[in-house]
Specification:
The protein has four domains: 128 residues, Topoisomerase II, domain 5, CATH 3.90.199; 79 residues, Gyrase A, domain 2; 121 residues, Topoisomerase, domain 3, CATH 1.10.268; 319 residues, Neuraminidase (6 Propeller), CATH 2.120.10.90. Helices cover 29% and strands 24% of the residues. The longest helix has 42 residues. The strands form twelve sheets. It has a four-stranded mixed β-sheet. It is α+β, with helices and mostly antiparallel strands and 871 residues long. It contains 19 helices and 41 strands.
Length: 871
Amino acid sequence: MPKGQEKPQNSEKQTAEEKAALEQNKSPTDEGKVVDRLIEREMKSSYLDYSMSVIIGRALPDVRDGLKPVHRRILYAMNDMGMLHNKPSKKSARIVGEVLGKYHPHGDSAVYESMVRMAQPWSLRYTLVEGQGNFGSVDGDNAAAMRYTEAKLSKIAEEMLADIDKETVDFVPNFDNSLKEPSVLPSKLPNLLINGSTGIAVGMATTIPPHNLVEVVDGVIMVIDNPLAETNELLQSIKGPDFPTGGIIYGTGGILSAYSRGRGKILVRARTKIEEAKNKQKIIVTEIPYMVNKSQLVEQIADLVKDKKIIGISDLRDESDREGMRIVIELRQDANSDVVLNQLFKHTRMQETVGIIMLALVNGEPKVLSLKQLIQNFIEHRKIVVRRKTIFDMTKAEEKAHLLEGLIIALNNIDAVIQLVKKSRSTQEAKEGLVHNYKLTEKQAVAILDMKLQKLTSLEQDSIRQEHKGLLKLIEELKIILASEQKILEIIKKELIELKEKYGDKRKTQIIEGENIDIDVEDLIEEEKMAVTVTHAGYVKRVPMDTYKIQARGGKGVIAAGTKDEDFVEEIFVASTHNYLLVFTNKGNVHWLKVYNIPEGSRQAKGRPIINLVELEKDETVSAFVAVEKFDEEHFLVLATKKGIIKKTPLSNFSKPRKGGIRAITFDEGDTLVNAKLTDGQRHIMLATKNGLAIRFDEKQVRPIGRTGKGVKGITLRGDDEVIGMEIATDKKSLLTITENGFGKQTSMAEYRPIGRGGIGVINIQCTERNGKVVSVKSVYDDNEIILMSKGGIVIRTKVSGISKIGRNTQGVKLMKLEETDKVSATARIVAEDEQATAQAIKEQRGEENGTILSTEEEPETNDEPTEDEE
């Protein structure tokens, strides 16, 4: 290009010289010229060429034989070398060299690693190479160097190569045009389905899982017999993936999705069993998900145990041997095997989500295919192979029959033929004479001249005639096959049935019907009873109930929650780790909280600020907890306030949790929430005040209202008196009253006669300077236990039966020795450790306990005040 006449850089049009050069597949520089080209155009063109090379030449399998080029070349080279299953193995290095030198001009490691994988029974469902030596392990160990190992074709691999010498597939030039290689294998086996395939190309990936040969053959035959078969019908034969490492597939939704549209996800779990050993249990892992490294899995479990993300495991070892896989996970004596298993599934690769993308090359183009489309493509391939094989066999048979016809003519005129040959001066003259005299072709004449004298015996003559008849019959049969597609399909079916009988085996991977499962966090937590403590400063924790020892009445107790200066334990609550807790605050708000979300601590631990678990306002504290299993229409929440207001709301109104909580009750300024109880609408309510008064009334006198309503008056208060507790009343129980100086008593609830809601109430306990004001009331049975806690953090656990049962108008007895400056702050009732008591506790929580219902037909008179504001 002359100086000063540079081509504009922004031009996107190619010059005539550039176009011509491209058409002639040579560079314009060959003629001493430089052609400018936009970098974007060059990058796009080059990258597309590269990506298509990767997609077609390396990463994606062909839909017909399920092989990538490297695998196809390995199998073909081994077959060409005569390395059949019934022949001696040869060094892997020799095989790799053969493949590299003739067909695959890439790295030797890529070829060897591909061959190694085809020999690993944990990688392929049906191995295509039979290896001898160290070919790696399921622990991820590398195979020995190729100079040490040997290999040959497996028997089933030979079915992939059967009839390849009968022009059944197209051959293409190799990389240097010196040899020919097959573009695809004949593949009697539906290899893409039975062995699957994985690969990552440019902008796309394929993950086709392996399947069971018997099921796949049945599915292919189903499509042959009924081309209109739908995916649901195919699922009757092909249940789902069948991994070489076994495992368990949970749910069929992902399988159906993958089979119907080519994409889906399935959940695969390790197969485990529980073994009993002395007082411990062992989890035995016998199968792991596909493509999971066993040694890395064991290491992962060990790390999680070390970091205390998985608890309950005392020992871990790998006892796998030639007999099979066996990972032993020993549990502690107090561990729950179900909980530990769920933790393992949640946090380790014992549970894997396997994505399925059925992407393969169809006529050189990558396509995502459904299960039926995969099968249809295989059938079409086999139809072509069978047809070409039939044509090849027919051509060979016709050529042979043609020669035999000439031999028969010669045998029918044997004397004259011999004389003609004897009189001929040369072979050419003899050939021309035979052609002229007996109307033969040159090939027939040559065959007659090449015929041995032994063919002249009568037996040999009969053999030639019989062979000729057989060939004519065979040719007729082959012509019938070529004229009928149904005949070709029958041959395909027959071949598949033979393969199923020879190589079919039982399914290794179990499929559990139903939807895909997802482990709930609750499944990872062992259900057990906990003592939940809340301090005045808002610290909360949970402690296992067996932390506290049972002591006799009047004992010193043990140190419980550690508290900072001026803080004291204000509430203690007993609940299961799986309970759904409604957390009510003094401001009338309610929050949702699972007990297992509360951090577990020791007796001396201070706990964790409750504001980290629920969103509380600055001056808001917790007033009550209610354990709930489900939110239904049959149960109610009854709330009581310090100023004597009572409110009843259907439990279903609290069924939608909100992060910041919701309003449970609206009350006047200065009032606070005292307690909340769960009822079934048929209970008696008892309110107790700090000055020793109590009232009992039927909850039917309280009409159900909405969440934000104010409620109605429950008890009329005098002076500075205020409500300190609310309980569900029943004549079968006693009311345990505790005062601030450590005194207490229990009184049968039958002594508290029902009166009208809103009354003044009756005497519950005599409050004096000696025993102090009432701090807590609890409804109890004799076989219950209670925990008493002081502001100083002292706790005592004792049986209710050790507390005197006396009348209402008394002062009580000493329950707890306190320092002069210490006061009782909170109490909690504990159910005895037996099935009957536990069942009773559950009934109480659900509001199903049998209580005394008012028997009078007329409702007692109520004392409503104008403060009532119902919603």
